[in-house]
Q: What sequence folds into this?
C-alpha cells in the first residue's frame, strides 16, 4: 500500500514499515528504539498494551520484532491517536494492533485485572510543575507528567498485568 503523508507529516522508514509522524509537535526520539531493544521479547500468545503510545512507534517495533498476536496502544491525545491509527492502517497491522483513545489512567475501568501479559510505556521524564512545559500539547504530554506520574503508571500496569 502506497502511503502518502499529509502536508504536515513526514514518512520515515522503520524496518519493513513506513512510519508517519507530524512535522511539528512531538517527534520520535531514540528513547523509543532503545526501550524496544531493552524489552524482553513477548511471545506469539502474549497480549501487549502500550500506555501513552503516542504515534505508535513502540507498537510498530513490537509487531516487527515479535510475533505477538495482539497489541493495544492507549493514547489520550487525539492527534497522536489518529496518527497511530494511520500507522497501523498504512502498515497493514489492523488484525494485530488496536489504538484506543483514552487517558491510560482510565484503563482499569475498561480492562479487567490481568487483561494483558505485557505492559510497556515510555513515560514522561519531567515531574509536573518542574521545568519548562512545551506550549505544544503533544510535546508537553510526552515530556512532562501532566497526564499522570510514575506511581499511577505502576498502579495501572499492575492491574493490567494482574
A:
Amino acid at each position: 500500500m502506497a502511503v502518502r503523508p499529509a502536508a504536515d507529516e513526514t514518512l520515515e522508514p522503520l524496518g519493513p514499515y513506513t512510519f508517519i509522524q507530524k512535522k511539528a509537535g512531538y517527534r520520535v526520539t531514540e528513547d523509543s528504539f532503545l526501550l524496544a531493544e531493552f524489552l524482553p521479547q513477548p511471545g506469539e500468545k502474549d497480549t501487549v498494551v502500550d500506555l501513552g503510545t503516542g504515534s505508535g512507534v513502540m507498537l510498530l517495533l513490537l509487531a516487527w520484532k515479535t510475533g505477538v498476536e495482539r497489541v493495544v496502544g492507549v493514547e489520550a491525545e487525539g492527534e497522536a491517536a489518529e496518527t497511530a491509527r494511520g500507522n497501523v492502517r498504512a502498515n497493514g497491522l489492523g488484525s494485530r494492533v488496536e489504538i484506543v483513545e483514552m487517558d491510560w489512567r482510565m484503563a482499569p475501568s475498561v480492562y479487567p485485572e490481568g487483561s494483558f501479559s505485557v505492559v510497556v510505556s515510555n513515560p514522561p521524564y519531567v515531574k509536573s510543575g518542574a521545568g519548562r512545559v512545551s506550549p505544544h500539547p503533544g510535546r508537553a504530554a510526552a515530556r512532562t507528567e501532566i497526564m499522570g506520574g510514575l506511581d499511577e503508571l505502576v498502579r495501572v500496569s499492575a492491574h493490567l498485568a494482574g
Remarks:
- The CA atoms of residues 26 and 138 lie 5 Å apart.
- The longest helix spans residues 78-90.
- The mean pLDDT is 84.
